[in-house]
Amino acid sequence: MPTKNQTTLTEFILLGLSSDPQMQIFLFSVFLVIYLITLGGNIVIMVVIKSDFHLHTPMYFFLFLLSFFDICYSSVTVPKALRNFLAMHKTISVNGCIAQMFFILLSGGAEILILSAMAYDRYVAICDPLRYMERMSKGICVQLVGGAWAISLVHVLLNTVFTFKLHFCGSNQIRHFSCELPPLLQLSCTVTLTNQVVLLTSVLIFGSSSFLLTLISYIHIISTILRIRSVDGRRKAFSTCSSHLIVVGLFYLIGFLQYTKSSSVSSVVMDKILSIQYSVLTPMLNPIIYSLKNKEVKTALGQMLGKLKFLE
What we know:
mainly alpha, Rhopdopsin 7-helix transmembrane proteins, three-stranded mixed sheet, 77% helix, 3% strand
């Protein structure tokens, strides 16, 4: 609890990535371009999947949702960062900061579970193809997505409820471009042991379970692919999950580095680099990876562009 001579803060200052005005203009331009590419790329993926009947399958249903969560993830942080790059007063209310943290955790958590559902989908398609339509029916896909939302919401609510119990009465400067939980805990003038335990426990349970599901799925997938005698057969089977494997690798690597590294090796610079990677760059790279590595998406995109040219 704050002492009598301490005033509870009502707003924070997001210091961002640099205090140099020229550098801020440069960063504004870079972030704006990345954000526009993120929006454009993910919207294109969603439109292509929605418009092409051949892509109305569980695999592309999950890809559609992944693009949606990428847009949400990026939109939670980047617009505010763009404003602050050019603003004189880079403030955000305490409640607004916690709300931003809430949606960062929610969209990121849901994305992790969607990636796990996609891994399970590839496992069924490669390891048990004859029962694919039975095991990946529309009802099961909806249940997987509903479960992803529910589990992610529980994870987020636990951390948010305990964050609202904190008092901020010291420095109001966040050395970051967005409101994430670790920097907020550092600014609290009350004991944050409970928050740290809840965060670590929820991340370990939530992250480890989804990671293990993905890992086990790919162990079976790789084992099945290696038993295929034909080289072309192995290449074709691997190509159906290579894009997802790249995306999963990027997401988990950055996420675990961010939230499980010890405080002794933590640094403000490293926090910013990791945050830029998974909240800014990864949502931009995902549609590029899937469009370049997926023949069906490229074919559907080509057909859609052909129809647009014909209409002209």
